[in-house]
Amino acid sequence: WLAANYGNGRFGNIVGFLDWGGASVQIAYESNEKIDGNIKIKLKNGKGELKEWNLFVASYLGYGTTELRKRYLKTLAAPSKQSTTTDNQMNNDGIQPESQDSPKQENHTKDEQTPSPAPSESSLGSQQFNNTNSENTNKNNTISQNENSTVKIPIILTDPCLNKDYTLVLHEELQVIGTGDFTQCTEATKHLLQPIKNCTNCFADGKANIHIPSTEFVAISEFYYTMHDYYKLPDYYDFHSVTQISKEFCSYSWNIVLNQHQNHTQGLDLQCFKSAWLVNLLHVGFGFPLDDINLRCIKSVNDLPLTWTVGALIDQISGVDEDYL
Question: How far apart, in whole angstroms, are the C-alpha atoms of residue 163 and residue 159?
Answer without folding.
Answer: 9
